[in-house]
What does this fold into?
Amino acid sequence: MTKHYCFFLVSVIAALCAIAGSSSAQTASASGQADALPAAFSVSPQVVRQGTDMTVTYDPTKTYMKGRTDIRSVLYQWKDYYWHAIDMPLEKQADGKLVFHYHVPEGTALLAWKYYDNDTTDVGGEEWQYASFVLTDDGANKPSACMGWAILRGEHATQWAIPTVQNLKFRRIDGDVEHFWMQQELMKNPSQLPFVYWYATQINAAADTAGVMKGKLLEGADYVIGFEKQSPVGEDFLLRAYYLAKSVLQNDSLANDVANSLNTRYPGGEFQREQDFIALAKKTNQHNLDSVGKAFGELQKKYPYKKYENCFRADDMFDHYYADMLRAYVYNPIMKDSDYSRVVPSFEFAPITSMLTYFWHIIQIPYERGDVSAKDLYPLATTLRNAIFAKPQTRDEQVYSPMEWKQKLYRDYAFAWLDYAKILNDVGRKQEAVALCDTLKQYNGAKVSDFNDFYVQMLRANGRGDEALPVIKAGLKANAASPTMLDVLKQDYVKQHGSDQGFDAYVQSLKSASLLEKQKEAVLAELTSKPAKYFSLERMRGGKLDMNTLKGKIIVVDFWATWCGPCKAAMPGMQMAVNKYKNDKNVQFLFIATMETAKNFREQIKKFIADKGYNFEVCYDNVNAKGQREQVYDYYAKLFHSSGIPMKMVIDQKGNVRWASNGYFGSPTALVDELSTIIDHLETGK
It folds into this structure.
């Protein structure tokens, strides 16, 4: 490798990395050693080499973790341009320091650490990240180490950073310093050019709003691809090059050249797999699901999932195509013949995101609608849940440690595990249900009223009623409480005070005043004024209701349907609102059942309202010109350019629609306060 050639490589990357900025942030030195480590953290020996043992010491008394009793730690290893995270087993010393002994694997280029508990994370403060370069036996940086440092600390490379630390407020190195570390990578390891180019191109494409860099990026792409042909680094790089050419540089000619190289040099590789699956996906429609399902199964045999699960994906769209075909393969027998036989075998080649989608479609929706009993759902729900948590992490997912990954699954899909806890309770496994709720508490917090409601019920049913009141009060502070929670609180209030006098004021006092004020401001900011149209509607209780007879009143309208889960979930809060204004003759609530298609929808609605004990004024929507029972809903949906139910609106005394909203955001008490803000404003002008 000539000196001239090295400088040419650096000039290529310099053009790619020309991002303006000053280099004020503290950095590691080019030799891989820190300029100065915080006193709280140390590694021994100070010079870390691959294949050797090291000891990591952390002193929480010198950080804001002082006094914490449940400190955990994660070590992030940077190797081959991927992060691999492991949970560190900490040993507590007599002096309070936390120690971890570790053997540095071969090939590791960079190490970074995090210390955390349920509330706080420490990665070293604003000026420094707990991190160390790993050196070779001759004292050089490992290939990819400098690029890894730019990704770990860089302000422009956050999409490849460690997700659990990237939003923390340590000071990031700016564009000039990122540029410096990319140059260092190429000066020390010229063979890394194809991979450095991958990151540099996307960073510059994102920052290059004027398009002035595009020509240089294209010139660099031609050069880098030619470089790879002379010194092949594998299919993974060519897949990256294809993605850059097609999606970032948007150069079809270059993309076709790379595609030809992939097909020629890597037959049966990831690229051909993607093309075969995409071709099949484009043939998929509702009329040929059987044949597509058979073809999908054959492709799975041709391309065993395990062989390809850690390949780089040349185009994110492939994941969408694959997921769509997988759902068709699994769901078609279920929809046609209630045949669930493909579900469990598909776990072998289903990405975890698809398995979580299974849980929503196959378990949660039937459960929430009441279509399938908890007893019938329990076996498959348990098998699916266990498989989700047991599924090995892919290479991309290993940026999370095993504990972090488990926490992510709980946090991101807490709504799924809440339904599973309800299923456990329904089949008599109450201790398992409450234990799962104990786990979910840290992920749902107090902001999810549905969880709060069920958790309170479980605590009381399992002899832990004394723990229910703190849950209720925390839920009220977040304005996320249910009628059941208020009933329990009221019982305690009466026990303490001898009567319920002053209870409503007590409830309001438990809510966050600042949160209530923000909610009030947000609702009042949504007020509008559009002339209402009054209709004559068939009443559930018989006869007709002419909305003209309600002129001069405030009318709260709720469009809903028996098949709509969020509509029904909002009704406990709506009942609370109805109860609050039951003695106010100037306020009328009207529940319009819309978009019902069942022949016996009237009987279904009557049964639902009776079973729940709601005392609503329910009317049926009128039939429109297309024969659909949604005339009134259609009119108001078009008026507000909206779609979907539940849809709520408030008509004032002068016949103007002053507020309309779609959806339900999960809190009965917040819904009552939202409606109360509008009603009280229309009555008092305040």
Notes: Residues 1-10, 18-37 have pLDDT under 50 and may be disordered. The longest strand covers residues 72-79. The chain has 26 helices and 17 strands.
